[in-house]
Structures are given as C-alpha cells and as structure tokens.
Amino acid sequence: MTGQPEIRIQLPPWMQAFLEAAPRTFGDDTQAMDMAIALARENTRQGTGGPFGALVLESASGRLLAAGVNLVVTANCSLAHAEMVALASAQQQLGHFDLAQVVPGGCTLVSSAEPCAMCMGALPWSGASRLVCGARDQDVRSVGFDEGDKPADWVDAYRRRGITVTRDCLRGPALEVLRDYAASGGIIY
Amino acid sequence: MTGQPEIRIQLPPWMQAFLEAAPRTFGDDTQAMDMAIALARENTRQGTGGPFGALVLESASGRLLAAGVNLVVTANCSLAHAEMVALASAQQQLGHFDLAQVVPGGCTLVSSAEPCAMCMGALPWSGASRLVCGARDQDVRSVGFDEGDKPADWVDAYRRRGITVTRDCLRGPALEVLRDYAASGGIIY
Questions:
Q1: How far apart are CA A40 and CA A69, in angstroms?
Q2: CB contact A61 to B (< 8 Å)
C-alpha cells in the first residue's frame, strides 16, 4: 500500500454536456439553486452518486465558476461531497487554494442541502464568503443521511468569520430530490 | 470555467522514497506518531506544504495503509489537509469509500496535530474507528493556524459514534514541528 501517487476525483462524463446546456450566469439565488437541485437530480438519475449538487459562483456577477455533485461511491472517496467537489474544482481551475485571493468581491457556495459537519468545516478554508442552502439539516436527516456533529451556533460562527448564510432557498424542491432518492432505494451513507 | 474533468491531488515526489525507507508496520502509537511527525517535518523541509502529517493504519496489525501530508498550497486545494490526503489515499487504494467495510478490525488515523473542524467532520465518513493525535488544538492555534469551529464535546460525540480518541501522543515533538515552521516564516493559512 501507500503506492498511489495521487488522489483523483473524476467528474461524471454527463456533467460537461449538462453544464454546457445550462446558464453560465445566474441572476439570483433561486436561479442558481434551481441548477444545484437539477445537478442533484441528474446525479441520481445517472447513477453516479447521491442526491446532492453544489455550485461555486462569483458573487458579484453570478457567474458560474465550478459545479459539483456527490461522488462518494463512484470516486471511492468519502470526501467527495458535492460542496467539496465544487470548491476544489473552482480552486484548481483558478490555480489557488484561497478563492478570496483570486475572485474580486468573493465567491458564493450554493448547495442543494445544508452542508454536513465536514463541508461546514471546509467552507471557511476555501475562501468563499457566502453560503446559500436549499434543504435544511433536518430534511437531510429525515431521509436517513447523517449530517455529523456541528457546532450548535454555526451560522453565528460563520458570521463572525465574515461568511453570510441564506437558508431555505427552494427548500421544498430540494427536499423533494432527497425524498425521491430515498424512495427509490438509493444508497444512504 | 467548469471545464476541468477531475480534481487531482498529487503526493509529493519525495514521499515514495521516504515511505520505502520507513517501517511498514508500527508496534504502537508512539512509533506511528513518530512517523507522522517525521512526515510533517519533511514536508516543510521539502517546501511542499505545511507542518502536518498523518497515517492510516490497519488497527489490528499496525500496518501502514496510507500516508498524507498537508498539500494545500502545492495542490491549489484547501481540502488537502494531511488527514484528508491520508484518508482519501487509503480509500482509493482499497477501492472503497468506507474503510470499515474493507479493513477487518477497523482503521486508525494517526495525525501529528488535532484535526481541524473539516477533518474532524471527515473522519466519521471515512470509516476509521480510532484517532490518535499529537499536538493539541491550542498548540496549533498558538502558532497562528485556524482550527475552525468544532463542537465543544467532540471527543464525546466521537465516542457515541464508536470512534475512540487518544490525545497527547508525542505532543512535545509534535508541537516543536509547528513552532519550527512558524519561526522559519512558513505560510500560515
């Protein structure tokens, strides 16, 4: 063991065409969330992962910088949550580990569901300064996913770091994707 | 943007030879931590990242499954903490996102420093069932690194999940690597 020279998380083949057919810039949070939810749904439909999608946008313009879906099972990697994939993809495309240093005005992470404990811890390190969530923590747990152990006051903790949070953006449709996945017998992990 | 088909985190070229010269099996926590600290020190000496090292071991035998160092700057990826690199490397080498399902008796994550909020959230998803830490949270903060916002009772929260925690393993030498890095003017992020 220990012989593998790199870690690789490949985005699913369908994603490129899916993104090319979608808007490159989003006028508001609802439009962006609609896209994050569409990615979550397509990911389950294609059988490439769990019902979660995320986008990284340039906050000032609404321009799409990167997208992610949950690839835990297909990438053999428990780190490959949609938010992590989107953040890492944005960073590697921009060539910097800190989005705040390369995107004037900052970045927004749009996630079809409230981030789990890992993704919540990851966001401040990414340099994103805004989070928009669809489904709530309890929605994710209600279909059987584990969200982990988060600080009780995470929204306040983010605010103290200068990260703003918008919740319940298209919460209903976001929850629907989770419920449809669970009802179809999708793997819960 | 959004054109990159994969996320890649390359392990530094020196690491292969370093691991080949080191034990493949560790008789106890102290021996394993000595190796994690050596990786942290070599990573700073080689200029490939921050002063953090981690190992994933098969708990029953002490056999090394994977190693990681902090590659945030060199990989252009804020997710590439030592613990994350070690866990993802173990999973991808073993071909499964859940180490508990492919390693009888479970895995141990040995980290030269207490995991930050992100890595702490990541460990339960990895399937590792034991954590051994060197430097404490306050040691990491004392040299200027941010550890993030963790649940106050994270050790108890882990215990409730069946994950055991051993702290202060070679804490002094682990802290020394952090101090040496800070004193040499290394990037703090």
A1: 6
A2: no
pLDDT digits over A44-61, tens only?
999 999 999 999 999 999
Phi, psi for residue A182 in degrees, rounded to 5: -65, -40
| Phi and psi based region of residue B47 (left: phi greater than 0; alpha: psi -120 to 50; beta: remaining) | left
pLDDT classification of B187: cutoffs 50, 70, 90: confident
B146 C-beta neighbours (distance < 10 Å), count: 14
Any B CB within 8 A of A30 CB: no
**Hey, is A135 helix, strand or coil?**
strand
Phi, psi dihedrals of residue A169, rounded to the nearest 5°:
-80, 110
Cβ of A97 and B72 within 8 Å?
Answer: yes
What backbone torsions phi and psi does residue B16 show, to the nearest 5 degrees?
A: -60, -50
pLDDT in tens, B92-103: 999 999 999 999
Closest to A108 (Cα-Cα) out of A32, A53, A181? A32
Tell me, what's the ipTM? 0.96
Q: Which two tokens stand for residue A83?
A: 């938010």
| Spatial distance between the Cα atoms of B120 and B141, rounded to a whole number of angstroms | 16
DSSP A103: S
3-state secondary structure of A107: strand
- The verdict on B126 touching A (C-beta cutoff 8 Å) is yes
Beta strands in B14-129 (DSSP E): 53-58, 64-69, 107-113
Matching residue, tokens 């490397």: B89
Task: Identify whether the C-beta of residue B77 lies closer than 8 Å to the C-beta of residue A127.
Answer: no
What single string gives the DSSP state of each residue in B105-168?
A: T-EEEEEEE---HHHHHHHHHHT--EEEEEE-HHHHHHTT-------TTHHHHHHHTT-EEE--
- A19 and B4 within 8 Å at the Cβ level: the answer is no
> Could you report how far apart the first and last alpha carbons of chain B are, in Å?
26
Residue B147 annotated as catalytic: no
Looking at residue A74, what is its pLDDT?
Answer: 97
DSSP A126: H
Q: Model's pTM, two decimal places?
A: 0.97
Question: Quick one: closest CA in A to B100, which residue?
Answer: A78
CA distance A95 to A8: 17
CA atoms within 13 A on the CB side of B57: 27
